[in-house]
Specification:
Shape: globular
Strand order of the largest sheet: 2-1-3-5-4-6
Helix content: 25-40%
Structural class: alpha/beta
Distance between the termini: 42 Å
Length: 194
């Protein structure tokens, strides 16, 4: 059995044609590295505890942020030594240079560029993201992250901000703990894409 599993998820059929090359780029990278690949559809949400699902089902992005962690933990329990998550819109354009750091876990790098108002110069905010991340068996961070995310979701009242337990929570933790970062897993903000 390969020691590393790569997981991706999206509803099917895919809502946009441009997602197919993204998914294929991750599958190609997975094959070239000798990893195993798994694609999950809406069954991903079956992993979420009922009380949290009731609070997040109207905001699938928030629900997915928890479900991906639970899917990764389950894969580690299956016996994989390392599990990698890649969002469906991740494009690996240089697979030969896309390496995971030698660490027990890693989060993606985010340099978010946005304009701070009409006519102002754009600013760059350095953070981390969960669009690409990995966890190795036995690392303590994944359990801490799952526990913290579930606790925050249960405590919160009202609508969630989109990145509540994703980049916002991870960046807050990273600012204090300096988590390992996958520097080659960057995130493009809408302003950069334009």
């Amino acid at each position: 059995m390969p020691t590393t599993l790569v997981i991706q998820s999206h509803r099917t059929p895919l809502p946009a044609d441009w997602l197919s090359p993204c998914l294929e780029s991750v599958r190609h990278w997975t094959r070239t590295r000798g990893f195993k690949y798994r694609f999950l559809g809406d069954e991903l949400f079956e992993l979420i505890p009922n009380d949290i699902w009731d609070k997040t089902k109207a905001q699938k992005v928030v629900a997915t942020d928890l479900a991906r962690l639970l899917a990764m933990r389950d894969a580690l329990k299956e016996g994989y030594e390392r599990v990698v998550w890649c969002d469906a819109d991740v494009l690996i354009h240089a697979p030969q240079r896309f390496d995971l750091p030698d660490a027990e876990y890693g989060l993606g790098r985010e340099v978010w560029v946005q304009a701070d108002g009409e006519g102002r110069k754009p600013r760059a905010y350095t953070k981390v993201h969960n669009a690409v991340m990995f966890y190795c068996a036995g690392n303590p961070f994944l359990e801490f992250y799952i526990d913290t995310a579930q606790r925050l979701l249960r405590l919160h009242q009202g609508r969630f901000v989109t990145q509540f337990i994703g980049p916002k929570l991870l960046s807050a933790i990273h600012n204090i703990a300096q988590c390992p970062v996958i520097e080659t897993a960057g995130m493009l903000s809408p302003l950069v894409i334009k």
